[in-house]
Amino acid sequence: MAMQRLGKDVVDLENVSVSYPLSHPEEGEARLEGRREVLRNVTWRIAPGERTGILGVNGAGKSTLLNLVAGTLQPTSGRVKRGTTVKVAQLTQQLAELEGVWNDRVSDVIAGQKRSYVAGGKELTPTQLLERVGFRSAQLSTPVKDLSGGQKRRLQLLLILLSEPNVLILDEPTNDLDTDMLAAIEDLLDSFPGTLLVVSHDRYLIERVTDQQYAVMDGGMRHLPR
Predict the structure, then answer these.
(1) Distances, alpha carbon 203 to alpha carbons 4, 76, 200, in Å
(2) DSSP for 48-105?
(3) What 3-state DSSP class applies to 174?
(4) Half-sphere exposure (CA, 13 Å, Cβ side) for 137?
(5) Structure confidence by residue, pLDDT tens digits, 41-63
(6) By C-alpha distance, which of 68, 62, 91, 85 is closest to 5?
(7) Which residues are CB-contacts of 204 (< 8 A; sequence separation ≥ 6)?
(8) Within 10 A of 118 (CB to CB), how many other CB atoms are there?
(9) Distance CA 213, CA 42 (A)
(10) Helices in 95-217 by DSSP H: which ranges?
(11) Cα atoms found within 13 Å of the Cα of residue 133, Cβ hemisphere only
C-alpha cells in the first residue's frame, strides 16, 4: 500500500517506565510506592522498515508497550521520542473502524475511500482489492454487520492500511481468523513497506511476517534468537 515515506527517526523509547495504582496487591508483583510497575527502564529504538514480533504472557505489558509507541499512553517516567513523518495506525481487539459503516455494503465501504489503489506495484480497483484479501463476489454486497468475525477483522485491517500509515501496530490480529483468512492477512502484510509491530500468541504468524522477536517479561524486553 502507498504510504508517507518514513524518515530515519521512527519512535524511540528512552529509559521508559509505566506503573499503575495498586488496588489489590498480588504475591510477587513489583511495587513502587503503592503502584504496580508494568514496564521498568525500557529503551527501544524502532528503525524504519523494522518488522518486530512481541511475545509474552497475558499481563506482561505487551499492550502497554504498544500503546506507548502509538502515543495513546504516556510513560510514568522516561521519554518517548517520535519522528516528524511518523503516522501510526493500530489494529486493536475492538472493531472501532467499522462502527460508522455497520449498515453499509462491503464494496461501498472500500469504494468510498478511493477509486483505485496500488498494492504490490499493481493498480487495483476496490473490488479487486477485496478479492485479493479473500472476499468472494457474493460477499461484496453483504452489509458489514452481517459479516463473520474473521471477515470483519480483514475489513478492519484493510481500512487501516488504506489510511496509509507508515508504522502499523497489530494486537492479536489472528483472533477470529480461519486458515484461509490468515493466509490472506499474511499476504497483505507481506506487501506493507513500513515499520510493522505485531503482538500475537501465534508463533507461526510472528515468524512468518516479522524479522526479529522480543519477549516482554519481568518489566523489560528480551531479544529472542531465531
Answers:
(1) 30, 31, 7
(2) TT-EEEEE--TTSSHHHHHHHHHTSS--SEEEEEE-TT--EEEE-SS-GGGGGGTTSB
(3) coil
(4) 0
(5) 999 999 999 999 999 998 899 99
(6) 85
(7) none
(8) 13
(9) 16
(10) 106-111, 126-132, 149-162, 179-190, 203-209
(11) 30
The type of residue at 2 is A
pLDDT digits (tens, 9 = 90+) for 165-215: 899 998 887 766 667 667 777 877 887 888 999 998 888 888 888 999 999
- Tell me the C-alpha distance between 141 and 107, whole Å: 6
Q: Crossing angle for the helix pair 149-162 and 179-190, nearest 10 degrees?
A: 10
Q: Is 216 within 8 Å of 69 (Cβ atoms)?
A: no
Q: Is 125 exposed, middle or buried (0-12, 13-18, 19+ CB in 10 A)?
A: middle
Grid coordinates 483505485 are at which residue? 116
Position 26 pLDDT exceeds 60: no
Letter string b/e over residues 23-51, b meaning 16 or more CB atoms within 10 A of that residue's CB: eeeeeeeeeeeeebbbbbebebebebebb
Mapped onto helix, strand or coil, the DSSP state of residue 18 is: strand
Which is more confidently placed, 188 or 36?
36
Residue with cell 506507548: 68
Question: For residues 204 and 210, what is the distance between their CA atoms, to the nearest angstrom?
Answer: 10
Residue with cell 496500488: 118
Q: Which three cell numbers stand for residue 172?
A: 492479536
b/e per residue 73-101 (b: at least 16 CB within 10 A): eebbebebeebeebebbbbbeeeebbeeb
CA distance 45 to 52: 12
